[in-house]
Design goal:
Shape: globular
Organism: Leifsonia sp. NPDC080035
Strand order of the largest sheet: 2-1-3-4-6-5
Helix content: 10-25%
Structural class: alpha/beta
Protein name: DUF3052 domain-containing protein
Strand content: 25-35%
Radius of gyration: 14 Å
Oligomer: single chain
């Protein structure tokens, strides 16, 4: 059986999920959620999911959200795939280091969206890219 989008993004039963930058149809991509998942502010989330459509929006979200997401188990940035925007996996990889984060993995969400998971750099760890 194929994984749901929530499973791909490591959302587990009982998690607090922070979603930002999503329209209602984009938010619906995460359904069905595992049992007991509650939505929360990104700063209180076990899993944070942020939709970005441009490089400028990515940088704005990185600056505003990454400082408060260090406690999340999984932090994802979703972007339009297939060259539909000026933000892509390579941009996320290159820009995350300037904010003290690094990419961990990349997954396909659907025909429109891909996602990059990032995590804070460990002490003494150099950025990727």
């Amino acid at each position: 059986m194929a994984k749901t989008v929530a499973e791909k993004l490591l959302v587990r039963p009982g998690d607090a999920l922070g979603v930002s930058g999503a329209s209602e149809p984009e938010r619906a991509l995460l359904d069905p959620l595992p049992d007991g998942v509650t939505e929360s502010a990104p700063a209180a989330a076990a899993v944070a999911v942020t939709f970005v459509r441009t490089r400028d929006e990515l940088l704005e979200r990185f600056a505003g959200q990454l400082p408060v997401l260090g406690g999340a188990r999984a932090v994802w940035f979703l972007y339009p795939k297939g060259g539909r925007a000026d933000v892509n996996r390579d941009v996320i990889i290159a820009e995350s280091g300037a904010f003290g984060w690094r990419p961990v993995s990349n997954v396909s969400v659907d025909d429109v969206w891909s996602a990059v998971r990032v995590r804070p750099l460990a002490d003494g760890e150099a950025p990727v890219g």
